[in-house]
């Protein structure tokens, strides 16, 4: 028996990259690799990268500069770049950083084992194709026996929407959905390994239209209903959704499907119709707000979350004010806001840019408003009863930590709950980034 080779994977970017990193580690598990938590001591380092903003992409090169020095002590070390920077920049990565042995785009992960064998022979390996194959079905994996209670499950990938600022349609390719049977098999398998909550992932997850058992297109709502029947699976979430794909059946499911959690991430990007138009978002502020009205009619206590870009090309103070007004109206439980970042090759990159200082100042104002709203919503939870999926032990004795139905981080004091339990709690206090709770005895 040879000692297992060591693999270190570092993940940047979105939840889909987290999922992909797990799959890549499993695939390399089949090649005799064992995953470790540090770059030091690794025989293979994989950076799973993000191209969404310039900063994210540049981080990769500075990290590579650091990592290459590890090759001095370990000449057998191989360095790979996966993810969206790999897809966008391909060979350029090896030119800019010759220490890189392997570059693999998100649609080619099933070819990773062959690529690993090639780099072990001392060759370079590059694959950024968009093959017409279900990479996850083709991956031969060696999964972990036990899993944490909450897991991601990719059901849809790619995007056909082409928002004017966004690289995702170029890095992840065209929209495609995995067949229902494969999703259900994977979910059942996760439940057998201790998973109680799945978050269905897709760049445009609510555009899901996977093939059902009879080959017909199946909507995300229908998929959720099928998952709802899996014993032992307690909670279902999904992200990220586009406002135009919030279909009636999906909205209704928020009111009727008990395992579907009352939390929805629905990015709007801007509150100004002029900007939304230039962004090619194909919805207006008003149509977005009316979708939220319908969701709240189905599920009044739903917590909304969103994404915003400030300083998009040609954004005026009045456009920005419209964003603040929209945020005031929605009242977000969570929201993520970003300063516009110019991405080469996207249409918005050609437009007149906003002064970076103006954009910075707007970002601060938006974030102050969002933080205030989040804190108000957290404070409004005090006294309420919710459920928590227990994920780990807390720092204090007897304390357990998990997520509420609304995705708030909750510390349960003096709890005898075990990891993986879903327990009713009463919220006692709102802290900065979490809530404190006690076990609630149901009558
Ligand atoms: N598919 C999702 C999310 C895509 S990326 C959606 O449709 O909303 C996640 C977030 O990054 C986006 O919602 C957007 O707010 C932000 N983003 C994307 N491109 C960006 C850019 N060029 N500059 C700044 N933020 C960007
Ligand atoms: Fe990017 Fe727009 Fe597609 Fe979201 S919907 S991934 S923001 S192009
Ligand atoms: Fe980044 Fe690619 Fe996700 S660009 S946000 S890792 S889809």
Q: How would you describe this protein?
A:
The protein is an alpha/beta fold and 443 residues long. The protein folds into three domains: 5-127, 3-Layer(aba) Sandwich (Rossmann fold); 135-379, tm_1862 like domain (pyruvate-formate lyase- activating enzyme), CATH 3.80.30; 385-439, OB fold (Dihydrolipoamide Acetyltransferase, E2P) (Beta Barrel), CATH 2.40.50.140. The chain contains 15 helices and 19 strands. The chain has a six-stranded parallel sheet with strand order 2-1-3-4-5-6, with helices on both faces. A five-stranded mixed beta barrel has the order 15-16-17-19-18. Strand 18 and strand 19 form a beta hairpin. Helix 14 packs parallel to helix 15 (356-380). The N and C termini lie far apart (58 Å). FE3-S4 cluster is lined by residues 13-14, 16-17, 50-52, 83-84, 167-168, 171-172, 203.
List descriptors.
Rossmann fold, 3 domains, OB fold (Dihydrolipoamide Acetyltransferase, E2P), 443 residues, binds iron/sulfur cluster, 21% strand, binds S-adenosyl-L-homocysteine, 35% helix, pyruvate-formate lyase- activating enzyme, alpha/beta
């Amino acid at each position: 028996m040879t000692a297992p080779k060591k693999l270190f994977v570092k993940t940047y970017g979105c939840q889909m990259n987290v999922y992909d990193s797990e799959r890549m580690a499993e695939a390399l598990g089949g090649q005799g690799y064992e995953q470790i938590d540090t770059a030091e001591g690794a025989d293979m380092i994989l950076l799973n990268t993000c191209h969404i903003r310039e900063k994210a992409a540049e981080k990769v090169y500075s990290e590579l500069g650091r990592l290459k020095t590890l090759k001095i002590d370990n000449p057998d070390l191989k360095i790979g770049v996966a993810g969206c920077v790999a897809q966008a920049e391909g060979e350029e990565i090896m030119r800019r950083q010759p220490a890189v042995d392997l570059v693999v785009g998100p649609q080619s992960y099933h070819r990773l084992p062959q690529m690993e064998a090639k780099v072990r022979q001392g060759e370079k390996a590059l694959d950024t194709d968009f093959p017409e194959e279900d990479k996850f079905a083709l991956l031969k994996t060696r999964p972990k026996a036990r899993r944490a209670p909450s897991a991601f499950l990719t059901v849809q990938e790619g995007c056909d929407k082409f928002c004017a600022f966004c690289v995702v349609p170029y890095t992840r390719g065209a929209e495609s959905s995995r067949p229902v049977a494969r999703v259900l098999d994977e979910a059942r398998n996760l439940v057998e390994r201790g998973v109680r909550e799945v978050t269905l992932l897709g760049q445009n997850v609510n555009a899901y239209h996977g093939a059902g058992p009879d080959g017909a297109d199946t909507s995300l709502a229908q998929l959720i209903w099928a998952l709802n029947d899996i014993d032992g699976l307690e909670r279902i979430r999904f992200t990220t959704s586009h406002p135009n794909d919030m279909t009636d059946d999906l909205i209704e499911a928020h009111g009727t499907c008990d395992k579907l959690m009352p939390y929805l991430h629905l990015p709007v990007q801007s509150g100004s119709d002029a900007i939304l138009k230039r962004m090619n978002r194909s919805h207006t502020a008003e149509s977005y707000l009316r979708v939220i009205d319908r969701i709240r009619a189905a599920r009044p206590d739903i917590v909304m979350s969103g994404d915003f870009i400030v300083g998009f090309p040609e954004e005026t103070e009045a456009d920005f004010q419209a964003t603040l007004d929209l945020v005031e109206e929605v009242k977000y439980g969570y929201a993520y806001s970003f300063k516009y970042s110019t991405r080469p090759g996207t249409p918005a990159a050609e437009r007149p840019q906003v002064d970076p200082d103006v954009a910075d100042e707007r970002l601060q104002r938006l974030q102050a408003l969002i933080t205030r709203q989040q804190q108000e919503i957290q404070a409004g939870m005090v006294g309420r009863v919710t459920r928590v999926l227990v994920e780990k032990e807390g720092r204090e004795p007897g304390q357990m930590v998990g997520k509420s139905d609304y995705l708030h981080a909750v510390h349960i004091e003096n709890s005898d709950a075990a990891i993986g339990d879903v327990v009713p709690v009463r919220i006692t206090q709102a802290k900065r980034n979490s809530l404190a709770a006690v076990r609630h005895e149901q009558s």
